[in-house]
Amino acid sequence: MATNQPSDRVLAAQSVGADLGDGFYVLPGMGNALVAETDAGLVLVDAGSQFTTPGMIEHLRNATESPLHAICYSHGHMGYNSEVDMWLNHCEERGENPPRLVAHENILRRYSRYKETLTHQARMASIQFPGRKGVSYEMVLPSFRMTEPTETFADSMVLTEGSRTIELLWVPSETDDAIALWFPDDGIVYGGACTPGDAIPNIGTPLRTQRFTIRWADSLDRLAALEAEVLVTEFGPIINGSKEVRRRLEKTAESLRWLRDEVVDRLNKGMSEREVLADMTYPEELFNQPWMTPNYGCPEYIVRDLYREENGWWDRNPTNLHPSAPQDAAQAVLSAIAEPAQVLSRAKEIAEQGDVQLALHVIDLLALSDSDLPEVVEAKAFKAELCLLRAKEIDPYVSKACYRSSARHLDNGINSWQDAP
């Protein structure tokens, strides 16, 4: 899910204008939005967002005047299909029938959940995609427009036949409603959210619900079994050649299964989540690959999600079983510190030695308090600096965004996310 502000694109469509053969077009949507010509008309994957749809329509109409037959929702994350109405209006202006709106059946439950938790979802989006000057709730809301599909399917569905067959496949991965499009006559598969491109699968990102690792691996194997000649990824380049397509899909699945095995081994040894994270190493032959780049997700995120699959919420620290209110605990810690200035000094010393993360642990002894003591005020400002430094050290975009959003809140005197605008 993304607000897709032009100033803060995380991953961008890389394949616009790529030659897939007659009757295929890649549009600049949230990622690589695909269009295919069929006997029935155009089939579009994803309608786009407020920022992308006008350009998608312009790009398409510079290439073809064929009517739009169907819009397929690649998955239910917001922004990818928030501007279905714009396409419906476009078709009406051209005097055409409204297109079929097709998605996996799980999207209905997702949309229902999003409507119920709209403020929460918008707040998470504003944290994860903060923009350069910050994002307000009102700025995020347009990406949460939801137009329910007119048709849904469970495991697979033949969308069109004739000169170009299109089959829709359920490939649960980033979401449980993700689909792929298979063009057997052309040997082309559009992997959608299941195949992000030159990025490791974004499992376990800090602000999202669980994404089940082995289920994603199974979906990759389903796509590999198609023996496609061409793979259109969601954000990355188009992959050509059946051997390379299969290698990329199968190797990603292998890496995900390796992570599961390693986490389970450590779980069986009684390790806590933080102990597992500290103990993990990641072999280069699996993770030093173009399609496993940690530019959005990262291996540590996946480890955390795998840990969540087999555990409850307890972090093994008995202090946290029935905790005091955050502000009370912070005040109690502060009251136990004889000289707060020494904590601040030590945190700065550790940061100067190059360990920003360790400095964050120390500064929290002061920075979590609501006190207006000068040392606490300075600690919050220093924590904001540390967050910005940490953002430069970390590869995954989502971590960078969380650090930057946290720094912005600290600078604005916000102690709780519930106080955020």
Largest sheet: 6 strands, mixed
> How are helices and strands ordered from N to C?
EEEHEHEHHHEEEEEHEEHHHHHHHHH
SSE class: alpha/beta
CATH architecture name of one domain: 4-Layer Sandwich
Number of strands: 12
Strand content: 5-15%
Q: What is the CATH class of one domain?
A: Alpha Beta
N- and C-termini, Cα separation = 20 Å
Task: Work out the helicity level.
Answer: 40-55%
Q: What does the overall shape look like? A: globular
Q: What oligomeric arrangement do these chains adopt?
A: single chain
The CATH superfamily of one domain turns out to be: Ribonuclease Z/Hydroxyacylglutathione hydrolase-like
Q: Please, what is the average pLDDT?
A: 93
Q: Going across the biggest sheet, name each strand in turn.
A: 1-2-3-4-5-6
Radius of gyration: 24 Å
Q: Which blocks of ≥5 consecutive residues have pLDDT under 50?
A: 1-10
CATH topology of one domain: Metallo-beta-lactamase, Chain A
Detail the topology: elements first, then pairings.
Blueprint: E1 24-28, E2 32-38, E3 41-45, H1 53-61, E4 68-72, H2 84-93, E5 100-104, H3 106-116, H4 118-128, H5 137-140, E6 151-153, E7 156-160, E8 166-170, E9 179-183, E10 188-192, H6 213-224, E11 230-233, E12 238-240, H7 242-268, H8 273-279, H9 284-287, H10 299-309, H11 326-335, H12 340-352, H13 356-367, H14 374-393, H15 397-411
Parallel strand pairs: 3-4, 4-5, 5-6, 10-11
Antiparallel strand pairs: 1-2, 2-3, 7-8, 8-9, 9-10, 11-12
Can you describe this structure?
Mean pLDDT is 93; it is low at 1-10. The two termini are 20 Å apart. Helix 2 links the parallel strand 4 and strand 5 (100-104). Among the domains are: 6-194, Ribonuclease Z/Hydroxyacylglutathione hydrolase-like (Metallo-beta-lactamase, Chain A); 324-419, Alkyl sulfatase, dimerisation domain (Serine Threonine Protein Phosphatase 5, Tetratricopeptide repeat). It is α/β, with parallel strands linked by helices and 421 residues long. It has helices at 53-61, 84-93, 106-116, 118-128, 137-140, 213-224, 242-268, 273-279, 284-287, 299-309, 326-335, 340-352, 356-367, 374-393, 397-411, and strands at residues 24-28, 32-38, 41-45, 68-72, 100-104, 151-153, 156-160, 166-170, 179-183, 188-192, 230-233, 238-240. It is globular.
